[in-house]
Fold this sequence. Notes:
Blueprint: H1 2-19, E1 30-34, E2 38-40, E3 43-45, E4 48-53, E5 61-66, E6 72-81, E7 90-96, E8 99-106, E9 112-116, H2 120-128, E10 132-140
Parallel strand pairs: 2-8
Antiparallel strand pairs: 1-4, 1-10, 2-3, 4-5, 5-6, 6-9, 7-8, 7-10, 8-9
Amino acid sequence: MNTLKKLIVPMGLLSVLCAIPTMAQIANRVTFDAPSVFYAGNAKMPAGSYSASQPNADDNLLLIEDANGSHSAFVEYVIAHSETPHAQSDVTFNKYGNVDFLSAIWVQGRNSEMQILPSKAEQNAAKAADAEKHSLSAKNTGETK
């Protein structure tokens, strides 16, 4: 019985720690309207309506897809924590010259953002110029986990 008690406490703590990274995940999708061409990872996306969703909650991958499904890309992200919850959902871009790269997604009410890992093209652009950050309002069309 003592051995069982010794196992229950660490297993409970482990389950709590495993749940922490899921806090910024998107349960359904975040939608946004891109007014100009942008890059999501290595994929060039035309202006239009887009959604970001997480097909697999166990992976740090987002699917960025236009409204009619003709343009899509998977991008990797990392979680960056903040002291205060974000007031609204939004999508942030890094602009180098006249080229936009998807940079981060905030979900309203969360204390963390999903920072998109920069592609090789963005890394090269960053060597040539400083990034100008700008954000677009987004809408969370589902509950967050």
